[in-house]
Amino acid sequence: MRFLFKNFRISVLNSVPLILLYYLSISEIDTQFSNMFEILSFNLQIIIIYYWMLKDENVIGPGHIFLAGIINDVVTGFPIGLSAITYLIVSFVANYVKNVTVNFSLFTDWFTFLLAIFFSNLCFMVFIQNFTDLQFSYSDIFYNSFFTFIFFPFFWTIFNLYKNVMRLKND
Amino acid sequence: MSSSRDDFTIAVRSALLQKGTRHKFSLFFLLSLSVIIFFLDIKEFTFTSYIRSTLNDLIYRVSNVATSPARIFAEVNKDIKNVIFVYRENKDLKKELNNLRAKDFEVEFLKNQNLNLRKTLEAEKNIENENTLAKVLLDKDSPYLKSIIINRGSKSGIIKGMPVVDGNYLIGRIVEVNFLSSRVLLLNDLNSRIPVTFGSEDTQAILSGIGGKQPKLEYLPEQYIPEKNVTVFTSGKDGIFSPGIPIGKTIIEKDDIVVKLFSDPNQLSFVTVQLIQINNEDFK
């Protein structure tokens, strides 16, 4: 019984980033603070996906990322598949970086995260501009990407601490 | 040179095609699937519309349940603030009530006069609207799209383009209809354009969302001198909205005239959809 409970606790602990990703996608709770500061908004989903794909891909798999993207599209009103594409592009960059990098540090992760944001936004804008009638403010996209990039080290530190807790519990 | 290019190709191929030990699908497969879904969705085939509608209804309900704890917290916070400021609010409301009572007679007189003039002109028919009350299920404040989800859909007779009001004030229009839910595009969204009228000279303009909190007035007459604190109404020129729905008051900001909306788009709990008969061909 104790063994079963321990296993359950560990699996819940390992699933927290995934639960957070789904919750952010499905809920109206998001990281948009326009009421307090008009331009402040950032995309926590992208930070979660990038960090966990880079550090431990078993925590958040591509299938879950795809599903979270589809859910996010339904909730936010984008054409279905658009967020899934941008999230999977971020996963792709994280996978690529993982394949070609030997030493990981906050600064290498932070720098390469910029590439992930760039490519995901590029895809987002190409799809939106060429295939839909929706209009977007470039400045909003820029501010969102900028703050996502700026907040990365903060969440990187939190996730690193959490990862250590996960490792300790798993051992 | 050739070796580094090979390394790059191998790394890219590996990143796209490699599956983790616990994963069933590769990134390449999922990316291709997402692109296919995206194009099927934007082409709006009948079967994809049906699937999307069902998916929307399902996810909106789940999302509504998932966010209810946060909603309760926000409600409690709002109630506490209301209790704190209740005395001052009561005083202000009494003053406002007296003003409104005085204006009521004036409105009655103008209404009668307007009716008589219409009879004389025989030009316009009175528009009798049927309304349906709807609860706001979701108001996710996306940095890109300003919209809300309501719990009424095609089952309640809602179709695309119908105006949505909060009390008496216009807040947006229906842009997506599912069987049990609909999406309302708010006036401050970048994609929103509404023909409006305002001022004693019945000035015509287009109210355009700019993505921020307040929409702005565009296509104003060349000789127009900006005035602040003027009430903006729908003009009804589009043939969709009834004329005379109040929207907000004008504010002058730098070179633009923006409109401070009467109804705060972030504070909506219940809204009313005006079930106006719309010629569907205009929306296709």
Pick out its properties.
heterodimer, A: 171 residues, mainly alpha, Arp2/3 complex 21 kDa subunit ARPC3, 0% strand, globular, B: 284 residues, alpha+beta, Thrombin, subunit H, six-stranded antiparallel barrel, six-stranded antiparallel beta sheet, elongated, disordered C terminus
Total number of beta strands of chain B: 12
End-to-end Cα distance of chain A: 19 Å
What is the distance, rounded to the nearest whole angstrom, between the alpha carbons of the first and last residues of chain B? 54 Å
CATH topology of chain A: Arp2/3 complex 21 kDa subunit ARPC3
**Major pleated sheet of chain A:** none
Estimated structural class of chain B: alpha+beta
Number of domains of chain B: 3
- Overall, the morphology of chain A is globular
Report the CATH C-level class of the largest domain in chain B. Mainly Beta
- Number of discrete helical segments of chain B: 5
Structural class of chain A: mainly alpha
Question: Could you give a short description of this structure?
Answer:
By secondary structure, chain A is mainly alpha-helical. Chain A has six helices and no strands.
What do you see in this structure?
The complex is a heterodimer of chains A (171) and B (284). In chain A, α1 crosses α2 (44-55), α1 runs parallel beside α3 and α5 (106-131) packs across α6 (138-170). Chain A contains six helices and no strands. Chain A has one domain: Arp2/3 complex 21 kDa subunit ARPC3, CATH 1.10.1760. With 171 residues, chain A is an all-alpha fold. Chain B is of the alpha+beta class and 284 residues long. Chain B folds into three domains: 2-17 and 25-68, no CATH class; 85-121; 130-283, Rod shape-determining protein MreC, domain 1 (Thrombin, subunit H). In chain B, the strands form two sheets. Chain B has a six-stranded antiparallel beta barrel with strand order 1-2-5-4-3-12. A six-stranded antiparallel β-sheet of chain B has the order 8-7-6-9-10-11, with no helix packed on it. The longest helix of chain B has 36 residues, at 86-121. Chain B starts with a helix and ends in a 9-residue tail after the last strand. Mean pLDDT of chain B is 81; it is low at 280-284. At the A-B interface, α3, α4 and α6 of A face α1, α2 and α3 of B.
